[in-house]
Design a protein that fits this description.
Layout (H helix, E strand, L loop, with lengths): L2 H18 L8 E6 L7 E5 L3 E3 L2 E11 L3 E10 L5 E9 L5 E4 L8 E4 L6 E8 L10 E7 L1
Antiparallel strand pairs: 1-10, 2-4, 3-4, 4-5, 5-9, 6-7, 6-8, 6-10
C-alpha cells in the first residue's frame, strides 16, 4: 500500500470512529427547552413528559453552571422489563446551532436502566465547555428507549 493510499485509509477510519461518538438511533426523539444563561451563575432547562418506545420520562431538569458542571434529574418508568433510557443532551445558541454536548465522563450519551411499571428518580452529573456558557440559549435532548 503506497503512502497516499495508507493516509486515505487512516483518515477514513478516523472519520468513521469520530462519527460513531455522536451516533443517535434513527428512532430517537428530540425535544428542546429554552433559557438564557448570559450573565447568570447557573441556568436550568425543564421538560414535561417525554416518551420513547416503552419508556416515559417526566419532570426532566438540567442545571448548567458557569464553571462547566451540569446536573440532571428526572423520574423514569417503562412498561417493559430490561429497558434503558438513553439521552444525548446538547446546548445550542440563539440560532439553534449546537455549541457542544453535555458529557458524562467524556461520553455524550447518558444511560439509565428502568424498572418495569415503577417510577424511579434518575440523578446524574455531566460537564461541558464553560467557554460557551454565556452563549447558551437552549438545550436539546435526544432520547431513545
Amino acid at each position: 500500500m503506497n503512502g497516499s493510499r495508507r493516509v486515505s485509509v487512516i483518515v477514513a477510519l478516523f472519520v468513521l470512529a469520530m462519527s460513531s461518538l455522536f451516533v443517535v438511533p434513527a428512532s430517537a426523539g428530540t425535544q428542546t427547552a429554552e433559557a438564557t444563561c448570559t450573565g447568570a451563575g447557573s441556568c436550568w432547562f425543564t421538560w414535561g413528559r417525554i416518551t420513547a418506545g416503552d419508556c416515559t420520562m417526566d419532570q426532566a431538569k438540567w442545571t448548567l453552571n458557569r464553571n462547566g458542571s451540569a446536573s440532571f434529574e428526572a423520574a423514569i418508568v417503562s412498561s417493559d422489563s430490561g429497558d434503558a433510557w438513553l439521552m444525548w443532551p446538547v446546548a445550542t445558541d440563539t440560532s439553534g446551532i449546537v455549541l457542544g454536548p453535555i458529557t458524562h465522563g467524556g461520553d455524550p450519551k447518558f444511560v439509565r436502566g428502568t424498572v418495569k411499571n415503577t417510577w424511579t428518580w434518575w440523578f446524574d452529573a455531566g460537564s461541558f465547555d464553560p467557554a460557551w456558557f454565556d452563549r447558551i440559549h437552549s438545550m436539546r435532548l435526544t432520547n431513545h428507549c
